Amino acid sequence: MIGIEIDSFDMAEIEHEVIKGTRNFVRSLAREGRDLAAQGFEEAEYPGTNDVYVHLEETPDESDVVATGDAVAFIEFGAGITQTNHPETYPEVVPHGQFGKGKGANPNGWIYSGEAGTGQVDPVLNRNGEVRPGVYRTKGNPAQPIMYDTANYMLNRIERQI
Predict the structure, then answer these.
(1) Phi and psi for 153 in degrees, rounded to 5?
(2) Angle between helices 11-42 and 146-161 in degrees, nearest 10
(3) Where does the pLDDT of residue 78 fall: very low under 50, low under 70, confident under 90, or very high at 90 and above?
(4) Could you give the CA distance from residue 123 to residue 132 in angstroms, rounded to a whole number?
(5) Which phi and psi (to 5°) does residue 86 adopt?
(6) Model's pTM, two decimal places?
(7) Measured distance CA(143)–CA(87) in Å, rounded
(8) pLDDT of residue 5
(9) What is the Cα–Cα distance from 133 to 153, expressed in whole angstroms?
């Protein structure tokens, strides 16, 4: 008879290593997501001040990619009369062009003061036909589903990892 000796595994150590590896993967993936979203918002077409700041909110068991700023919803879901193409819009809750101050429902667009930004804007003239500095007319910007795309990227990475 041949005897086989099997070393016992330290299950607590294995569990600890699995949890540690999972946490490291989640943090690494969250950093990728943060960088992807930050780049997307930086390159977004938006008439006005793009004040979006993308950062991580982390606890020992969770890492969240968070975008803050007044422009987030307008960039993510689109603004104005520009056709929306975001995969998760709910027109029965907030009809396109109606969130914010509702100026997006005007087919002629709206006038705002501030930065021209990177979107489609036209200068506004005063009564003498001179350009009013810092005043622009826009019809909005298309939806740019940056956080939606970032979440899908992260989910696909998780699926590939598993």
Answers:
(1) -60, -45
(2) 150
(3) confident
(4) 7
(5) -75, 135
(6) 0.81
(7) 9
(8) 52
(9) 41
Are the beta carbons of 37 and 146 closer than 8 angstroms? yes
| Residues in the chain, overall count | 162
Domain boundaries, the chain: 12-83+96-161
**Residue 76 near residue 53 (C-beta atoms within 8 A):** no
Residue 43 is classified by DSSP as T
Q: What percent of the chain has pLDDT over 90?
A: 51
3-state secondary structure of 101: coil
In the predicted model, what is the mean pLDDT of residues 127-136? 94
The position carrying tokens 């918002």 is: 41
**Residue 101 backbone phi and psi in degrees, to 5:** -95, 0
Residue 140: count of CB within 10 angstroms of its CB: 24
The pLDDT score that the predictor gives to residue 68 is: 97
Going by C-alpha positions, the residue among 55, 67, 42 that lies closest to residue 117 is: 42
pLDDT band at 143 (very low <50, low <70, confident <90, very high): confident
> Hey, how many other C-beta atoms are within 10 angstroms of the C-beta on 149?
15
